[in-house]
Structure prediction request, 208 residues.
Amino acid sequence: MSAGTSGLFVSFEGIDGSGKSTQARLLEEALAAEGRSVVRTREPGGSPGAEEIRRLLVEGEPDRWSAETELLLFNAARRDHVETLIVPALAQGEIVITDRFADSTRVYQGATRGDLRETVDILHALMIGREPDVTLIIDMDPALALERGLARRSGEDRFEDFGLPFQEKLRDGFQALAAATPRCHLIDGNRAPEAIAHEVIALIRTHL
Ligand code: ADP
Ligand code: TYD
Prediction:
C-alpha cells in the first residue's frame, strides 16, 4: 500500500489482558490534551467491515478455524482497516494509535499456531505492506494477564481459552520480536497503569 503519509503510526502489542487497551486510551488522552489530532483504533476491527470479520475471529470455539483460515481472515480485516481508516488518517497528518496490528499475526499465527511465519510475511508483503512507526509491546506475567483478561468476561475469549501455556508461548514470541525489531519497544506491564503511561508518552514524544 502506498506510503506518502505524514502522520505517526503507533501500535500496542502484547499478550491478552496485558493492558494494551488501557495504555492506548491513556496515550490518546495525553496527546489529545496537548491539542494533537489522534485516531484510536483496534484490531481485529477498527473499520465497519473489519469489525464484522472480528466477530468471526474472537467468538466461538478455539478450534473453530485452522491457523491458515484465521490468517486469511485477519488479513482481510486488516486490509479493510488500512484502506479505509489508517492510510486516510495518516495522510491527514493524524496520529493513529492501534491496539494490535501485524505483529499480533506474526506472533499468534506465525509463531504459535503452526509454523506459518513465512506465509505470514509473504501475505503481509502482498496485501498490507506497511508497518507502524513505533510499536509498544507490553510485557507481563501471562498468569496475571490471563486473570485480568478473563475477569472482563467480554464474550470475546476465544484466544484466552487456549490457556496459560499458549499465553506463555506468546510472551516468548513478543520478546523475540522486540529483540529483533528496532521499532519495537518492550514495556514492563507489571506496574500501575499511570507509571506505564508515563514511560509510553515519553517514548512517543521522541517521535513527534
Ligand atoms: P488488553 O487490551 O491488553 O487486553 P486491558 O487494557 O483491557 O488489556 O486490561 C485488562 C484488564 O486489566 C482491565 O480490566 C484493566 O482495567 C486492567 N488493567 C490494565 N492495566 C493494568 C495495570 N497496569 N495494572 C492493573 N490492572 C490493569
Ligand atoms: P483483542 O481484542 O486485542 O484481545 P485482548 O483484549 O484479549 O488482548 O484481540 C482479539 C484476539 O485476537 C486476541 O486474543 C489476539 C488475537 N489476534 C490474533 O491472533 N492475530 C492478529 O493478527 C490479531 C490482530 C489478533
Q: What stands out?
A: The longest strand covers residues 8-14.
